Structures are given as C-alpha cells and as structure tokens.
Amino acid sequence: MSYQAEYSKSINTPEAFWGEKAQDLAWYKQPEKILSKDENGIDRWFADGELNTAYLALDYHVENGRADNTAIIYDSPVSGQKRKISFLELRDEVAKFAGVLKAQGVEKGDRVVIYMPMMPEALVAMLAVARLGAIHSVVFGGFAPHELAVRIDDAEPKVIVSASCGIEISKVIEYKPMLDEAIEKSAYKPSACVILQRPEAKATMIEGRDIDWKEAVANAEPADCVPVKGTDPLYILYTSGTTGKPKGVVRDNGGHAVAMKYSMKSIYNVEAGDVFWAASDVGWVVGHSYIVYGPLLAGCTTIVYEGKPVRTPDAGAFWRVCEEYKVKVLFSAPTAFRAIKKEDPEGKLIANYDLSNLHTVFMAGERLDPPTYHWTMEVTGKPVIDHWWQTETGWAICGNMTGIETLPPKAGSATVPISGFNVQILDPDGNELPAGEQGAIALKLPLPPSCLPTVWGDYERFRTGYLTDYPGYYCSGDGGYKDEDGYVFIMGRTDDVINVAGHRLSTGEMEEIVADHPAVAECAVIGINDPLKGQQPIGFVLLKNGVDIDGQQLESELVALVRKEIGAVACFKRAVIVDRLPKTRSGKILRKLMRQIADGQDYTVPSTIDDPVSLSVIEDVMSENGLITS
Ligand code: COA
Ligand code: AMP
After folding, report:
1. Where do the domains of the chain lie, and which CATH numbers do they carry?
2. pLDDT, tens only, 253-269
3. Three state DSSP letters for 536-569
4. Which residues line ligand 1 (CB under 6 A)?
C-alpha cells in the first residue's frame, strides 16, 4: 500500500478506515458505533465498544503465547540496577497492585495521581489504574509541590502513588517531602498515598494515610480487569497552556488503544517481539504513548531507562543501551542528541557499540533543527525521522509512515500528515493557504482516534482554546507551512508556550510568578533560542516606582521563585531589568516582536505601538546581555 492510498482512505472514509483498524484489538464488545457525537457535539470514536486497555497490553499477550516474552527492560545507570520483566510477571504485578488500589476504594472512573521517577513501578501503577477502569494522572517528577498541588486539586484523586525519591545523575531528589507539601497546599485531600521506598532515601510515612508499597502488595488480592466503554477516560495528562493553570488533557480508552496499535506498525514499523525504546519520561505524553501503551499493546519490549543521554556515565549511554538490548527503534527529543553531540562531536563513542539491530531513530518534542538531523544521521548511519505531535493528540500528526511507505525525507520538515489528520495551513480569516505560505496549522474535524475530547472538568476551556478560532478546525497552536510536495514544516508556537529541552512550558505561568515578586510592577517572559535546550525562558522586568534593588540580587530571587513554584525543569535562569516594555496602545505587551528581536529577525513595527522607542530600548538591553541570537 502506498502512503497516499492509505492516507486518502483515512480522510475520505474515516469510519470505514478506523472501523477496520479497531478490529485489530480484542475488545470485550466490538464497537458498532464507529464515529458519533457526544453531549457536547464533539466527535467520538467507538462509543459503544467495551474493552480494557491493561488487558490488551498484558493479559492478551499472556493468553496468546507471549507470556515469557520480555515486556519491560529496566536499565538504571543512576542506581546500578538492571531487570527484565516478562508479560506474565508484569500482568501479575499489575493485578496485585490493582488489588492494593481496590482495597483503598479505587473504582471505575476514580482518579489516581502518580508522581514517580522512571522505574517499572511507575508503569505498574499506570496499568493497575487502567485495569480497574480508573483514570490515572501522572505528574512529571521535575515539577515542584505547587504544580503537583494544582493537579491534585483539579483531578481530585482518591489515591496518590509515589516513591521516596528519584535520582538525577548522582543527586537524590526526595519526592516524599514534596508530595507532603503538595497535599498540605491542595484543598482536596486524597484518602491514601502508596509509597515505594527506595534504598537511596527512606520516606517518613504519615500514619493513617501512607501505605508502604511492598507491604501492601504482599497482602493484596489480585484484581481483575474492569471493562470500560470506548469513550471512558484512560488518563488525564496536564500540559502547559498560556495561563498559570495547566490543561488536563483527557484521553479515552478506545480511540487511544486503536491509534496506539495502528501507529506501532504504520509509523514505527515494529511488531510483537521487537525492542522499542522511547528515551523520555512517563511524566510526558511521549512516555505515556511510547514507553507504556504503544509498545505493550503491540507486544513489543519497552525500555524503562532511568538515566540521561550524557553523564550516566558518558555520551555513549544511548548507544550502549541500543547494543545491549538490540533496540530496533530509538525515539527521543532533538535536545538529547544535541547534548550527546556537545560532548562527543564526532560521535567517536558510537564506534564502541554494535548498532546493527537499530533500524530507525525518531525524534519529536520540539523542532528537529537541520544540523542535529544531519549530525545524527551521519554518526549513526541510520534514517532519522522527525515527527510532530502534541499532548492533545497523543500520537504523531505529521511524520514518515515507515511501516506503510517511507517517503524521501527533507531536513527541517516533519514530512507529511499521518492517517486521519487533515492538516491545513490557515490565514487569520480561516482561509486555507496555498503551498509555501506560512500560517496557523489547523486540523480539519473530525480528529482521528486518540485526540482529546475535552479538558478535564472544563469543556468550555477546550472549546474556546481549540475550536473557536477557526470553526470546523482544531487549532494546534503551532505555525508553519506546506511545500509543493505536501511536506509540512513546523515553525514554532504561535502562543506563549515554549519548549525547553523538549519539555513544554508556559511563559504565561512564569510571568504570573515573576509578577508576584514585591519589587516587580510588570514583566514579560519570552523563549529565546538556546543551542542545547532549543529554547530558554528569559524574564524582562519593570520595577515598581521607587524600588531600588540590585539587578543580580533580583535575578537570583526570581530564579529561586520560579524554581520553587514550577520546579527545576522550568530552567528559568535569567531575568533582566528594563525601564519600559513594548506595548500596544491598549496595553498588550508585544511579546512576538520581542521574540523576533531576540532571534535577530526582521520585524515590522505595528501601527498600534504605544511607544516606538521602547523597541530600541529592549534591543539594547538584549544586546548588552548577550540575548540576541540569529
Ligand atoms: N525529577 C526531578 N528533577 C528533574 C527531573 C525529574 N524527573 N528531570 C529533570 N529534572 C531537573 C534536572 O535535574 C535539572 O535540575 P538542575 O537545574 O538542578 O540541574 C532541571 O530539572 C532541568 O532539567 P533538564 O532541562 O532536563 O536539563 P538536564 O541538564 O538535566 O538534561 C537533557 C538535559 C537534554 C540531557 C535532558 O533534558 C534530556 O535528556 N532531554 C531529552 C529527553 C526528554 O526528556 N524529552 C521529553 C519529551 S520527549
Ligand atoms: P507536548 O504537548 O509536550 O508534546 O508539546 C507539543 C509541542 O511541541 C507542539 O505544539 C510543538 O510546538 C512542539 N513539537 C513537538 N514535536 C515537534 C516537532 N517534531 N517539530 C516541531 N515542533 C514540535
């Protein structure tokens, strides 16, 4: 089948296309309604189908001759551990842990927050929640207590699952005090916390609330899989929007399982028994889709790597793992390869490893810049494929479907739309733009399976955030263009979301925190180019009248404030004082213009500008502080 034939079928006859793909799963009840509308008028997939995602990821393989195949390889250079877990062992561990949660009253539809480092137990917890038909919400370990508290209040989890610590290279990060602080801060209180004690740090337990993971499992009765409807939620994953409040992206069971299973063969070209490694974290969407659900639904072996691309112990870490476990597909963010390139520019360490099993390297999470693309291809000698996606979709919107037909790549492009995604470039009035013209990237409805049907508890936010700018389309928040061959080039966000080391962050949220400092009258936080992390946030701060504070002193206080509120992962390291900010006459800060100045781009001064001199002031400040890149 050619890519064009497959893609056209998915767009012209979506119900027939996805109805056929759904048959690839062992539903308890096959769906008859393939595409229907929900109470909000949103397109939903497989509404009357019944399934259990954890059953499909584990029990199904145990029952179909793969009980002894390896499901998870745990490789942790930071703790010196390695472990292999078969599908049978994992199924049993998950059933037992589901029993632990059930004993705490967790039932279908209840929420469970998971705040864990990269260990197999994080996957066990996610799959156990899914087994009970409950809804997990994983919070990335790099987030601070405040961020965790916001998510607890929004998701209202009956139980929270966590560990005593995570390990960042050689630094032990104690999770339990952060969890305790978050629960203290949140208005909503979970009834229990299940804590995995790690030898690197012992957590102090709170009587009556905290339960020791190992003791609880030792006494647990295994729990069975609970059937759920195709449209019942599997998880909520919070992601950064343009305000301080993160958006709870809801993922349903049916559409997600169908899209995951389909993507493993069609995009990544892997099958049961193959080793698939997404070097990411379960706290991000890449981790949900391609460390946990995608590979396990397809019967592949997934790798849980608790380490970094560099310094654990060196820039050969990725290649060592690829050789040791015969990895067929490696997937990570461009920033990881830039980190490797920085330490091993000629890729000398690669020569120490046998990469003959590695077929393809996939990248996502941020734009794959052509130098990183060329470098990775040259040093590995493998095809490198960029693909573009978002937490909201759960899988790639554009990419190269290597299991259908590999198209010739073009550096700087995420190739072509994936089956089901009708990708259009729109002008501000919502007209579809011709090839070569840059505009907003929007997806014509209906969206394919797995895409979010709402924001948790806030349908209105979903509607206004994604569906109203261009009626009939989902607005991605990214800008870009298509070329004459239909290849899509993603040029970056059109809103206040930035990508730092492949981590999605909100500059709006950082502004709210910076503006809270008693010396600050007003501020703008923008993302500027960074050679390693892609972007880094910089704060431009206007002081209150009469305030006299040393710039360095203020910078270190603001850096500490953002780190405390959002977490180390925000990478907010620079804040400079300015005496005016460029604004429109109605008082809107011209952040896009500031970004263009910082990126050394040409810009047009808008007629609505209030104080044109402010632009040269900002340019001077940026230049004095070495913030202008090109
Ligand atoms: N728990 C606690 N802290 C964490 C954390 C976690 N799970 N993850 C990151 N942090 C901390 C780091 O220790 C660092 O703290 P520091 O400021 O005290 O040094 C801070 O958050 C920033 O982390 P990061 O931006 O990841 O920088 P880094 O220098 O530690 O690593 C890379 C840089 C490029 C090696 C790393 O980001 C990476 O491997 N990224 C690519 C893979 C990826 O995660 N992609 C995500 C989506 S695909
Ligand atoms: P997240 O929801 O964390 O996956 O972040 C999604 C955002 O990351 C997208 O809206 C893009 O801005 C960016 N992104 C992800 N993958 C790519 C890619 N391959 N090319 C360009 N930008 C990307």
Report:
1. 500-624 (3.30.300.30)
2. 999 999 999 999 999 99
3. EEEEEEEECCCCCCCHHHHHHHHHHHHHHHCCHH
4. 141-142, 166, 168, 173, 279-281, 284, 286, 308-310, 332-333, 335-336, 339, 365, 501-503, 568-569, 571
